[in-house]
Amino acid sequence: MIAYSGIRMLIKAADTKRNALVICVGLASGLAVTFEPRLLQHFPHELSNFLHSGITTGTIVTVLLHQFLPKSSKREEQEAHEESRAMVKQEIHELQQQEENQEISQTELSAKGNN
């Protein structure tokens, strides 16, 4: 459910360089402490225990980056939204073409089967 909710939020967010950086660094930090717990060995024991969970570390890093990195310009966000819409339209068009091709293939198979 957490992953699903996150994916839904990502779909709605503008695909800007800033947002990509925030997401990628957050995921990387969470995965880093999960796969290599020794990264935290020089931290105080209480902090190390707190950051031991990849979900906790990733969330904290993501929230901090989101708060402190400069926001994307309105123009960049608008371009990202337009690009996203264009990609969705293209994908819909490709899916419609695939469906039409499948229908044609099925019709041809039915015609050959009847002969």
UniProtKB/TrEMBL annotation:
UniProt region (Disordered), positions on chain: 93-115
Which terms in the GO cellular component ontology are assigned? Answer: plasma membrane
Query: What is a single molecular function from GO for this protein?
Result: xanthine transmembrane transporter activity
Q: Where is the composition biased (Polar residues)?
A: 103-115
Where is the chain membrane-spanning? 50-69
Q: Which UniProt keywords apply?
A: Membrane, Transmembrane, Transmembrane helix, Transport
Family as reported in the entry's similarity comment: Belongs to the nucleobase:cation symporter-2 (NCS2) (TC 2.A.40) family.
Q: Please give the name of this protein.
A: Xanthine permease XanP
**Organism from which the protein derives:** Vibrio thalassae
Q: Which lineage is the organism of this entry classified under, starting from the top rank? A: Bacteria, Pseudomonadati, Pseudomonadota, Gammaproteobacteria, Vibrionales
Gene name of the record: xanP
